[in-house]
Specification:
By secondary structure, the chain is mostly beta strands. Helix content is 10%, strand content 41%. It has helices spanning 2-28, 44-50, and strands at 34-40, 63-72, 76-82, 89-97, 102-107, 117-124, 127-134, 137-145, 161-162, 171-172, 179-182, 185-188, 195-197, 204-211, 217-222, 226-231, 263-270, 273-278, 281-288, 308-309, 316-325. The chain has an eight-stranded antiparallel β-barrel. The longest helix has 27 residues, at 2-28. The chain is globular. The chain starts with a helix and ends with a strand. Residues 1-26 have low confidence and may be disordered.
Length: 328
């Protein structure tokens, strides 16, 4: 009897080990694992159905998105997804059908009162091709592998550029613009369009002085893709509060002053690595930004991009906005 029990235990252990090893080998070798920059296509009718506004400064080839796929344990694929709005959302499990050679997952909605959002895709020649079903609308998308943005040499800084001029000639003025220059201060009086610089940048340092009224919300998009949050966060220090990169990097502390007081940002972006000094306190210390944040202009992370100031959320004022680009 004891021999039989021993045999059965060995058999179960061997079978379990075999299954685990097989699963681990297949999944860890999968070329679907990684970070992907997405382009989501929406037809005019779909935009109308969903009530989504596309401001004219976004990339013309589609809405940006981002997807991370990684291995959890021996055989389970999990990840994160960023759409054209909102923050990075966790994916509990990404399922694979060997018979169809397809992947699929669902995530709950974030800012819409609708059913869960369904995603399905395949991979071929290191490109993801798929669709998402959003409130009954089938939106096609493609994904390319996100670049590493590694830098092999330290940045060499060029000359500072003042982005605040009386005629706002450093900016592309959007439709429904509410920004005005008043006595040398760039003021957004109410919700309106987003401002985008007419010059694009790779690596840079950015020095900003700003203030907002109680309850207001804005943001500065680095390269037009990574939102540095500006918000009356009321003491919070989480991944969506002031001093951090929206949805990805929480500030180490909440260094905000009271609404109505002038505040400072000193920002350095080199490759993916960002350092943020908020009111003299380093809230983000040379941290890599995983991917684009919601509301980005595009998902072309390997290219230079502009600075975008969010004007569609609330009032904000800037009395200093100086950028120093790297020249190497």
């Amino acid at each position: 009897m004891k021999k039989l029990k021993t045999f059965l235990l060995l058999f179960v252990f061997t079978l379990t080990s075999f299954v685990s090893v097989q699963a681990q080998r297949v999944e860890s070798d999968s070329n679907v694992i990684g970070k992907w920059d997405l382009t989501i296509t929406m037809e005019k009718e779909q935009l109308e159905n969903l009530g989504i506004f596309r401001h004219g400064l976004m990339a013309s080839d589609g809405f940006p998105g981002w997807l991370e796929i990684k291995l959890s344990g021996f055989s389970t694929l999990v990840g994160y997804y960023v759409g054209y709005e909102g923050s990075a959302r966790p994916i509990a499990e990404i399922h694979y059908s060997a018979s169809e050679d397809k992947y699929h997952f669902t995530i709950p909605p974030q800012w819409m009162d609708i059913d869960d959002i369904y995603f399905e895709f395949t991979i071929k020649d290191d490109v993801l091709t798929g669709y998402k079903v959003l409130d009954g609308n089938k939106l096609k998308w493609t994904g390319v592998r996100a670049p590493s943005l590694e830098r092999t040499e330290p940045a060499i800084w060029g000359n500072p550029i003042n982005l605040l001029t009386d005629n706002m000639d450093k900016w592309i003025i959007p439709a429904n613009n509410k920004f005005r220059m008043i006595d040398g201060v760039m003021v957004n009086t109410e919700k309106g369009g987003n401002l985008v610089t007419n010059q694009k940048f790779d690596d840079f340092k950015l020095s900003v002085e700003f203030r907002y009224p109680e309850g207001s919300n804005s943001g500065i998009y680095l390269r037009g893709r990574y939102e540095l949050q500006i918000e009356d966060s009321k003491g919070r220090a989480d991944a969506v509060s002031i001093g951090g990169i929206y949805g990805f990097i929480a500030p180490s502390v909440n260094a905000a002053k009271k609404p109505g007081e002038w505040q400072t940002y000193e920002i350095t972006l080199v490759g993916r690595h960002v350092t943020v000094v908020h009111n003299g306190i380093e809230t983000v210390s040379n941290r890599p930004i995983p991917g684009i944040t919601g509301g980005s202009l595009d998902s072309k992370e390997g290219e230079p991009g502009p600075i975008m100031v969010q004007g569609d959320h609330g009032p904000i004022e800037f009395r200093k906005f100086v950028i120093t680009p790297a020249v190497n």
